[in-house]
Specification:
Number of strands: 28
Mean pLDDT: 91
Shape: globular
Helix content: 25-40%
Low-confidence stretches: none
Largest sheet: 16 strands, mixed
Number of helices: 17
Length: 621
């Protein structure tokens, strides 16, 4: 056979085999499934296998209230914040070198929309700023070295001075969005575009202003985000108008955006009120709109922990944790049920029964609300919430000082570290809050989990295949079935052992009354509840003087399948997990040791018990 004949023969063979293969796959489509099969399990995994830790709420020197505090001018800006979050070394205002022990996976710089960039612009004599009436007046005060606090806080007043130069505002916003795009590195580090909407409402009960703040987070790049300017309190102080802004952004740009509420503990009973901003009872449309645009709540941060409070959860022995009321001069106990996450989740059930939609159906995250461009919340590396509260021998005695909570971070279960994947996880609420430690927490709900599933190495695969993850819904209980929950918590690899895992349940009974109950579902060191449901404390290894502890108590991992013993298939309910570490030194103890502080007032806590809160799983009949 000649060379040319061989080539023709091979071509004919290929064509014949191709026809045969097409015929086989046409007659038997299932053969394609065999082609798609792979020996490698990870290829076929269609669920999130990674948890990413980050901060969704950080301010830089573009925020007017961060730029200068207590005669300290914040030098750190956008680039410094991103570089620090990515694990690079930066210099603090006081000249100290600072670095994270481990980089963050993502960051949202959320500078206040209100007069953003104005304070820095005054120092730089920005010509656009000086072309405005407010800019000229403030510049004169700035040059005269007047106390900045005499006019800066008027930004939040009833008749705030506003810089309305659109060119100046656009230039600052484009600087923000360009830096986010610059530092965004898909697969390695995610930089989201964002800002904070900061309305301040005067409290009817007197004594202070109600905080109804929201962080606005875009999935998109600068090209899309630059089509709008940040929405500020000067546009409106009503959340309903913010949601309209978000809806218009998505409609006009094809982009994606969400809002994260925070600091309910400083809202004077308004964050989760059952009236709208006009004082009317919540409507179905309000509930639908809020639940769409606000899928997350920041449950822990520097200005206090907002999971719950002793007055609304009196049977919860761990409720009295990092409470801080800031500038609240008057506190009314009746307001607290409208301020904290747990009672708000219960109120959501009440409103769902009334309206058919739950307005307070949110997942929980933590973040810092740092105003120093530094996202660092480790107790032994706490670098301060303000430039005036950077490490130093006097910061404990500052009026804010020791009351500040070194917290927190957001943990997100996602397929990959990208804007798209993390944003999707936030929307579906597959997230949890941590006060700082990077604990790994899985939480699934379903009807068919087996007790041995908790000890399986492929726990996550089982969790997704038999049920729903945190942030999900269980509906219409099958006949004779009780929901069971698959839970695994693993300690921070560089942190403390675990004390316990608890399930917090809230429900609405047939009479409309709201309830909550705490279940100790997994206890370390082989401990058991006694007949009264009490548990022996895990112990305490903290050496305050040395600012140290040991992992000689507690467990590195706790896993369990738990079934609700009090389930009623006709009752609306939610469940979330709280994980507690063993006691460890608080940042104040590390300060005391480093600066050799003496005669520290007894009211200053030196020990903390770090924790994590998952997003709930809801049950609906």
């Amino acid at each position: 056979m000649t060379s040319s004949n061989k080539k023709r023969w091979f071509k004919l063979q290929i064509i014949q085999y191709s026809y045969v293969l097409v015929l086989l796959f046409t007659l038997n489509p299932n053969l394609w499934a065999d082609v798609e099969k792979t020996y490698s399990p990870s290829v076929a995994a269609d669920y999130p296998q990674h948890v990413y830790f980050g901060d969704t709420h950080l301010h830089t020197n573009l925020s007017f209230d961060a730029y200068r505090r207590d005669n300290q001018t914040l030098k750190l800006g956008l680039a410094d914040a991103y570089q620090f979050a990515r694990g690079e070394t930066v210099r603090l205002n006081n000249g100290m070198a600072a670095r994270l022990h481990r980089p963050l996976d993502f960051l949202v710089i959320a500078d206040h929309a209100e007069n953003v960039g104005v304070m820095r612009g005054l120092e730089q004599s920005d010509p656009l700023l000086l072309s405005t009436e407010v800019g000229k007046r403030w510049y004169q005060k700035f040059q005269a070295q007047d106390d900045v606090n005499t006019y800066i806080w008027k930004t939040f007043g009833p008749e705030p001075p506003i810089v309305r130069n659109e060119a100046f505002r656009q230039s600052i916003w484009e600087e923000v969005t360009a830096n986010a795009d610059k530092y965004n590195d898909p697969g390695k580090f995610t930089a989201f575009i964002g800002f904070e909407w900061t309305p301040i409402i005067t409290s009817e009960t007197g004594g202070g202003n109600a905080h109804l703040h929201r962080v606005v987070l875009f999935e998109d790049n600068a090209t899309r985000a630059n089509q709008v300017l940040p929405f500020s309190l000067y546009d409106s102080q009503d959340p309903e108008d913010l949601w309209t802004y978000l809806e218009r952004y998505e409609h006009n740009t094809g982009g994606k955006v969400l809002a994260i509420s925070h600091n309910g503990n400083l809202s004077y009973g308004k964050m989760f009120a059952v009236e709208d901003s006009k004082g009317n009872p919540l409507s179905k449309e309000y509930a639908k709109t809020r639940s769409r645009w606000e899928p997350l709540y920041e449950a822990t941060q520097t200005k206090g922990d907002s999971e719950t409070h002793p007055t609304v959860s009196p049977k919860d022995e761990f409720a009295d944790f990092e409470r801080w009321f800031g500038n609240r001069k008057q506190k009314i106990d009746e307001q607290r049920i409208y301020e904290y996450a747990r009672p708000a989740l219960k109120l959501g059930l009440q409103q769902q029964a009334k309206l058919g939609i739950n307005p307070f159906k949110f997942g929980m995250i933590g973040s810092t609300d740092g105003h120093s461009a530094i996202s660092a919340v480790e107790e032994d590396n706490y670098l301060g919430v303000l430039s005036s509260l950077e490490p130093g021998p006097d910061r404990i005695e500052n009026p804010l000082g020791w009351k500040i909570n070194a917290a927190g971070y957001a943990a997100v279960w996602a397929e990959e570290n990208t804007r798209e994947s993390l944003f999707a996880a936030m929307k579906r609420k597959e997230v949890y809050a941590t006060t700082g430690p990077r604990m790994t927490v899985r939480f699934f709900g379903g009807w068919e989990y087996d007790i041995n599933d908790a000890i399986r190495p492929d726990l996550a695969k089982i969790g997704y295949s038999k049920g729903v993850p945190m942030g999900g819904d269980l509906t219409n209980a099958p006949k004779g079935k009780t929901p069971n929950f698959l839970i695994r918590a693993v300690k921070d690899p560089d942190g403390a052992n675990l004390d316990r895992v608890q399930v917090i349940k809230g429900w609405r009974d047939k009479n409309g009354a709201l309830h909550e109950k705490i279940y100790n579902v997994a206890l370390s060191d082989g401990r058991k509840e006694n007949r009264k449901g009490k548990v022996k404390p895990v112990g305490n290894t903290v050496d305050i003087k040395d600012a140290s502890y040991t992992n000689s108590i507690g467990d590195p991992e706790l896993a369990v399948v738990w079934k609700d013993p009090d389930f009623n298939k006709n009752e609306l309910a939610f469940y979330y997990v709280r994980v507690l570490e063993i006691p460890t030194p608080r940042w104040t103890a590390y300060d005391a040791k480093y600066y050799d502080l003496k005669n520290i007032p007894k009211e200053i806590p030196m020990i903390t018990q770090e924790r994590a809160y998952t997003s709930p799983i809801w049950y609906e009949p």
